[in-house]
Amino acid sequence: MLNKEQIKEIIPQREPFLMIDEVEEYIPGKSAIAYKNVNEEEWYFKGHFPGNPIMPGVLITESLAQTGAVAILSYEENKGKNALFGGIDKMKFKKIVVPGDRLKLEVKIIKQKGPIGIGEAIATVNEKIVAKGELTFAVV
């Protein structure tokens, strides 16, 4: 299990934009499973939406991307680099995410050629899919 400080040794994101709290497991260059503990104090809930806080889909997607970045940037040849979005495909949002949810984030790298790759991404809460899709990345 990696904590936030150990995650920061792999990916460059920092608070308030570090969107994963812990990594349960990862295989460098292949996959990662991480968690985001969604709490009512999150900065984005102040405006999304007052009195009805819902985690924005783009931030669920970013959480998945950071999870994928752990897999890619922990690979020896990519250490010290950055993984940038190249595209988002087939992303579907199935359920809302609210304060108190523990978001499980799973990314498997399904294709990679040189610095470009695709990760299959699935976010769940209580074993129910809340979002899934494919994330294209570029390692720079």
> Strand share of the residues?
35-45%
How helical, in percent, are the residues? 10-25%
Total of DSSP H or I helical runs spanning 4+ residues: 2
CATH class: Alpha Beta
Mean pLDDT: 97
Full CATH superfamily name: Hotdog Thioesterase
Report how far the terminal alpha carbons are from each other: 26 Å
CATH architecture: Roll
Largest sheet: 6 strands, antiparallel
Structure description:
This protein has 140 residues and is of the alpha+beta class. The chain has a single domain, classed as Hotdog Thioesterase (Thiol Ester Dehydrase, Chain A, Roll), CATH 3.10.129.10. It contains two helices and six strands, in the order H-E-E-H-E-E-E-E. The protein has a six-stranded antiparallel β-sheet with strand order 1-2-4-5-6-3, covered by helices on one side. A hairpin with a 2-residue loop joins strand 4 (102-113) and strand 5 (116-125). The two termini are 26 Å apart.
Give a brief rundown of this model.
With 140 residues, the chain is of the alpha+beta class. It is built from 2 helices and 6 strands.
Features of this protein?
6 strands; 2 helices; alpha+beta; 140 residues; six-stranded antiparallel β-sheet; Thiol Ester Dehydrase, Chain A; single chain; 41% strand
